[in-house]
Known about the structure:
Blueprint lengths: L5 H13 L6 H18 L4 H19 L1
Helix pairs in contact: 1-2, 1-3, 2-3
Amino acid sequence: MANLTLVQAQDRYVERVLSCQTGHVRRVRRGAWHELAEWARRHGYDAQIVCRDADDVLKLEQAAEE
């Protein structure tokens, strides 16, 4: 995950959460958030903003599937 761009890192978060099994969504989402936050901090971004943006995209993807 070290050589990813910001958009690729956020896409990874979304894909991880969308591809998990139903009973594990909360745990997978928390782990994906933590991984993205660490990536953001290492690359000089505000982790909270990056994660919130990725979570917004996730919500849009989930709404589009319904």
